[in-house]
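stuck on this:

***
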Amino acid sequence: MSGKQLTKNYIYLIISQVSVNLLQLITVPYVSRVLEPEGIGVYSYAFAIMTYFSMFAALGLNYYSQIEIAKNMNSKEMRYQLFWECFIAKAITSTLAIIAYFIFLYFSNLPNKYIFMAVSISLFGEIFNNGWYLAGTENFKYIATLPVVIRLGSLPLIFIFVNQKSDLILYILIVQLANFFGNVLMSGPIIKEHGIKPAKNLEIKKHIINNLVYFIPTIAITIYHALDKTMLGMLQETSIQNGYYEQASKIIQILTVITTSLSLVVLPRVTLLEKEKKQEELKYVHTRTFQAIFLIAFPLLFGILSISERFVPMFFGEKYMGSVSILNILAILVVIIGLNNLIGAQGLTARGLQNKYGVGTIIGLMYNLVLNIYFIKNYGGIGAAIASVISEFVILLCFITFTWSYFSYKDIFKFAIKYCFFSIVMFLATKESLNFIDNTISGLIYIILIGIFVYTSILVLAKDKLAYLFMKALKEKFFEKKDKYETT
């Protein structure tokens, strides 16, 4: 596949994530006000606990299976064999995780056990989550479209059935069941390609064993991302701080998906290029993807910093003012997490260096655990945010150290300075506009549009090549005839 196809795949995911996030922007303000910080905190804590069992359900197989499929992208017969082997392996690990979770619930003294049972639907959905196959074959059109359709279907249900604080369980069931059916429908293109008849002479055991090298990083990553909310639930007397942190981190997750999607798109391509030893193409992909991270992540970072004080109370409600400082601290993660995912995917995983990926993540996890004990106990959600930023930065330093001789960080650093400067100019313009634009929803939208206009204008004046490629790809997708588009 060409470089244009890679750009098209990324645009598919970007459009999908923007659409899903816009739909989420419709429900989050409503849900935040109905369930209040305490209700959001209860859900956040229950989901964090379930996440520990989810990592054993996946066992690193999503990442491993995607890479194995990508290596055999040109062989339909091998893909067919690998699909059934990896699918059954994951079904086994998921079933064991589900059993372990319910045993844990039975013997635990956790409050609101019905909430914990509701979030377990995610574990059942993990069995049918075959997105790894579609990603490995670069079928990003379907991966991008399905979440939008599922979100549209569940959107009215939230407004119909979630009307008061006691409707928390209904909200969880709607969200979890929507995700479950989304995972089931992910198998549609696979059934169309291969049918439902299982392959013969399946070697399942070898995949479980070979995948263990991916499991260590998966454990570290899962625990790392759930640790903040778990420790907030344990070290704070109420769920309110968890509610503040959950909503702030939700905004960051929405934005980081835009940058981390790039790693998902690039991994199959880089894996194949590494296997075929195509160094020139690899260098091109490396350069463009790092440039894309900075082009997108820096304006998102400075955009958050410029509007957070208006955005949080307007979006979540006045009761969530405690989320403002947390959001400002976490904003830098849009850049750091984007880089960590990209370096981890291109510089480590695609080259078979999962052990170093695991080492870097475990070091970050240890930092996060130690820092959380002090910071959360003394500063609540703000402390958790500080610990997260420091830990992610430690992971970034580890990944850079491990890949210092592989990437040209001198050139990469030049891109960072360039787009950081452009974004600071945008930040100053949007902050200045706050002085004469009303504190209303329309005013906030106007401020965001000013930021977009200023940043885009700077890119045009600077004749930025990557921005030109994105605009050209968008033009081809939406304005060119389909037959011409498919021949590029």
Remarks:
- DSSP finds 20 helices and no strands in the chain.
- Residues 481-488 have pLDDT under 50 and may be disordered.
